[in-house]
């Protein structure tokens, strides 16, 4: 069963704000909403007016003057640049900021959204950006700024994603801006060739859609899902759109089910709001294909949002099951076992009126907010105090940050990230803590999740109290205990004599385990070096070379100016060239000294 919340604003400009707004009226067709969005160019007299209005509707005390100032700089820097559609380039950052505003993001995020392409595509520098808007905005913009393909070649994509993930580890708003950026690019793919559309849509499906899901922003993920389907499966999209537009008696049936559910809840003295929650197009398509159905599979669905503590969710479940017979095997409790993207809810399927299956989602108002907006919730609702367990940490992001440090090859990192994101997740318990792992993981995967040494020296495991082979697939909810050599389980054998077994690579699922096992067997080889490492080494080399001339740098501004004069897209690319000896550090330092001493 899906965890999405309904049809939302797929390819449109608005996002659902409250449960009562969803399913309250017949939605426009997706094609109509796409045309509506693409025809929108804003008010020529005041292009920031709609952005400001949207932002103030959620954050009444927001500093609109700051938005106008950032827009003015972005418009000035992008002036004369055009998109492939022929539209002025500024329409793109304005649209990205609008998407972030509809999500309820803060002013800082909107400012960074307006400026997110200036450093990459114009002469505006990070130093100028920091001077104008501060370090926080600069970090967000730098986090979504891509490495130059002309200089980094095939490694550019992987290193750009790695850079973005590392930046998101410090501030998750980097990923929110990137997702909004991609959503608008996907909405405007029509100006590109069919091959480009397919390539970009597939890349979105492989990495950014799963990233959006891990962030828990279902309001944004629904839009990405649907626009990907629009470009990759146009025939299926058209068929589902026709189905959605011509469902006889659909609204009447959902109205009847909702009314009867409300009556059952009142009898059980549960205060709750009940609304229709129609699926979005991609969700219908996915279930239709998975089940091999000849016609779109689109079960009616309602949401029950209780006004009370989470225990009322279980009372509501009892009321619904008392009214209609539940379908065996179709109940899931994401309240007792929350997903790692902040999603919490009860899912059940019942045999509703006329013998039709009806899906029911049950959650509190706070759970509903987090199910819609995930990590964006704390920005949209800054006064929310009852945050869900674990809302201050995204375990998957921490895991990626851990294992990205152990791989120096950009392509390997990107492949590992794709695999990690593509896998469904399970929750297992060890040593009193819950751990999220890819579906099909083994005790070895868990051992590496507990630590590199624990993984390397793993020798045995129990699953639910029984000794099990290390290759045993774990299931959701399993309780696992890992035994390693340094636990004292093996005597008279020095710990240095043991390590991971190569055959483990045949059954481990997690990127962390795969990388650590490969690291163990590759450690005799000269370690690779990432672009970030090369940047640091290049900077250190310049510093040491300057010392030979009894000189130093008070700031990097002259060095950035020199990088531009030498034809490099940014300072980091120059520093990589210094590290790789593409350009000699002595030559760079001589030019730097000459530029500083003789600025004319």
Which structural traits does this protein have?
alpha+beta, Hypothetical protein af1432, Beta Polymerase, domain 2, Ubiquitin-like (UB roll), three-stranded antiparallel β-sheet, globular, disordered N terminus, GTP pyrophosphokinase, HD_domain, Beta-grasp_dom_sf, TGS
Structure report:
By secondary structure, the protein is α+β, with helices and mostly antiparallel strands. The chain folds into four domains: 225 residues, Orthogonal Bundle (Hypothetical protein af1432); 136 residues, Beta Polymerase, domain 2; 128 residues, Beta-grasp domain (Ubiquitin-like (UB roll), Roll); 67 residues, no CATH class. Strands 1, 2, 3, 4, 5 and 6 form a six-stranded mixed β-sheet that branches. A three-stranded antiparallel β-sheet has the order 10-9-11. The protein has a two-stranded antiparallel sheet with strand order 7-8.
Short description:
The chain is an alpha+beta fold. It has helices at 30-39, 49-58, 64-78, 91-103, 107-114, 118-121, 126-133, 135-143, 149-152, 155-170, 173-187, 194-215, 218-232, 234-245, 250-267, 281-290, 311-323, 365-373, 377-380, 395-404, 410-422, 443-450, 452-456, 511-522, 531-548, 557-565, 571-579, 585-597; strands at 272-276, 301-306, 325-326, 332-333, 346-351, 357-364, 425-430, 433-438, 458-463, 466-468, 480-484.
């Amino acid at each position: 069963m899906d965890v999405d919340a309904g049809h939302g604003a797929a390819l449109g400009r608005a996002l659902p704000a409250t449960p009562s707004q969803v399913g309250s009226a017949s939605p426009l067709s997706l094609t109509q909403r796409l045309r509506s969005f693409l025809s929108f160019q804003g008010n020529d007299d005041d292009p920031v007016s709609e952005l400001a209005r949207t932002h103030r509707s959620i954050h009444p005390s927001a500093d609109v003057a700051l938005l106008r100032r950032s827009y003015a700089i972005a418009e000035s820097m992008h002036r004369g640049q055009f998109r492939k559609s022929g539209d002025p380039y500024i329409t793109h950052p304005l649209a990205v900021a609008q998407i972030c505003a509809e999500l309820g993001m803060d002013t800082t995020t909107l400012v960074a959204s307006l400026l997110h392409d200036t450093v990459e595509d114009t002469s505006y520098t990070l130093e100028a950006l920091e001077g104008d808007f501060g370090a926080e905005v600069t970090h967000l913009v730098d986090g979504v700024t891509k490495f130059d393909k002309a200089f980094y070649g095939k490694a550019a994509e992987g290193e750009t994603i790695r850079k973005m993930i590392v930046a998101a580890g410090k501030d998750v708003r980097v990923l929110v801006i990137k997702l909004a950026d991609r959503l608008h690019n996907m909405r405007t793919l029509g100006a590109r060739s069919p091959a480009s559309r397919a390539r970009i849509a597939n890349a979105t499906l492989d990495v950014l859609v799963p990233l959006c899901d891990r962030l828990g922003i279902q309001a944004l993920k629904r839009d990405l899902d649907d626009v990907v389907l629009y470009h990759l499966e146009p025939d299926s999209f058209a068929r589902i759109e026709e189905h959605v537009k011509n469902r006889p008696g659909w609204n009447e049936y959902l109205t009847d089910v909702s009314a009867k559910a409300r009556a059952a809840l009142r009898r059980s003295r549960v205060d709750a709001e009940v609304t229709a929650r129609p699926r979005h197009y991609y969700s219908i398509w996915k279930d239709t294909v998975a089940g091999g159905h000849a016609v779109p599979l689109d079960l009616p669905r309602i949401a029950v949002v209780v006004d009370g503590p989470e225990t009322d969710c279980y009372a509501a479940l009892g009321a619904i099951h008392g009214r209609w017979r539940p379908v065996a095997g179709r109940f899931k409790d994401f309240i007792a076992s929350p997903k790692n993207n902040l999603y919490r809810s009860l899912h059940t399927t019942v045999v509703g009126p006329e013998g039709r299956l009806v899906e029911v989602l049950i959650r509190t108002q706070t759970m509903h907010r987090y199910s819609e907006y995930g990590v964006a919730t704390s920005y949209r609702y800054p006064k929310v105090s009852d945050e869900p367990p674990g809302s201050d940490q995204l375990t998957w992001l921490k895991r990626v940050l851990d294992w990205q440090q152990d791989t120096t090859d950009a392509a390997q990192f990107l492949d590992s990230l794709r695999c990690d994101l593509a896998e469904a997740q399970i929750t297992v318990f060890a040593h009193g803590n819950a751990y999220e792992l890819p579906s099909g993981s083994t005790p070895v995967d868990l051992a590496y999740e507990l630590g590199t040494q624990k993984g390397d020296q793993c020798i045995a495991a129990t699953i639910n109290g029984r000794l099990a082979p290390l290759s045993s697939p774990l299931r959701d909810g399993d309780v696992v205990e890992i035994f390693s050599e340094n636990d004292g389980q093996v005597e008279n054998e020095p710990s240095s004599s043991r390590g991971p077994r190569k055959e483990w690579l045949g059954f481990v699922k997690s990127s962390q385990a795969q990388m650590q096992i490969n690291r163990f067997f590759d450690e005799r080889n000269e370690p690779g070096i990432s672009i970030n490492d090369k940047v640091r080494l290049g900077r250190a080399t310049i510093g040491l070379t300057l010392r030979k001339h009894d000189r130093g740098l008070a700031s990097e501004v002259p060095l950035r100016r020199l990088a531009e004069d030498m034809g490099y897209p940014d300072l980091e690319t120059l520093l990589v060239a210094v590290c790789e000896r593409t350009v000699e550090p002595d030559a760079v330092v001589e030019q730097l000294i000459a530029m500083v001493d003789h600025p004319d």
